[in-house]
Prior knowledge:
The chain is about 30% helix and about 30% strand. The chain is of the alpha+beta class.
Amino acid sequence: MTESRLPASLEVSAFVRRTQATGGFAMVLKKGEPDAGTILVVILDNQGLGTLFERMPQIDGSRKWTEIKSQSIENKNDFDTYLGRRTEQDADLWLIELTIADGERLILNAT
């Protein structure tokens, strides 16, 4: 079943508000297309290392948040290079960064 989709700008605003409401910090690093832009979410852990999530299409037409890349302490630049390539390749892309305890829960429970 295909899910109807919220405008990207509204979904990003909701992530920012929910993060702040639970005592976290959220920052929009890149604004994309307001209605249908792809959203990438970086969740920083307590060491400042990021985990990147993107909502990926599923066979049934739904879209599920999926971890697509993790930053390692041995090679932090690889993660930043990947983000740079993604944002250069897609002008419609949104990139947000969340610093919050148990951020994966916030992402994976998002509808």
